[in-house]
Amino acid sequence: QVQVVESGGGSVQAGGSLRLSCTASGYPYDPYWCMAWFRQAPGKERERVARLNRDDDTLYLASVRGRFTISRDSAKNTLYLQMNSLKPEDNAMYYCAAAKYGRPCSTFLDDYYWGQGTQVTVSS
């Protein structure tokens, strides 16, 4: 059974930083061939914030580019999202997602396994 678990959310003032962590287990293949962070604010659709593929290529949502960094520690089997210069508009539930086998590294929600989410709250 595939499990994706994220942690590291919390509350911070605008301009502050947080680091989210995620581990994936139960895969019959390397899950880190494509992993991503999504977020969903109340009343809004879930959107992909950043993704990292097996070639270590990264892609970011325009509004977080230059402030957020996605990375992984292969030795620890952990994916990270370093979030700097946080803004109130970054308030959301953040989800770690690992692509299903054979699926592209896309923005389609059905292409992923999901964690339970971790809340990020940024106060102005």
Throw out a few tags for this protein:
about 120 residues, mainly beta, seven-stranded mixed β-sheet, four-stranded antiparallel β-sheet
Kindly summarize this structure in a few lines.
With 124 residues, this protein is mostly beta strands. It is built from no helices and eleven strands.
Biggest β-sheet: count, sense, barrel? Answer: 7 strands, mixed
* Apparent shape: globular
Order of helices and strands: EEEEEEEEEEE
Q: What is the CA-atom radius of gyration, in angstroms? A: 14 Å
The count of β-strands is 11
Q: How are the SSEs placed, and which strands pair?
A:
Elements: E1 3-7, E2 10-13, E3 18-25, E4 34-40, E5 47-53, E6 58-60, E7 68-73, E8 78-83, E9 92-99, E10 112-114, E11 118-123
Parallel strand pairs: 2-11
Antiparallel strand pairs: 1-3, 3-8, 4-5, 4-9, 5-6, 7-8, 9-10, 9-11
Describe this structure in words.
The chain is globular, with a radius of gyration of 14 Å. β4 (34-40) and β5 form a beta hairpin. The N and C termini lie far apart (41 Å). It has no helices and eleven strands. It is an all-beta fold.
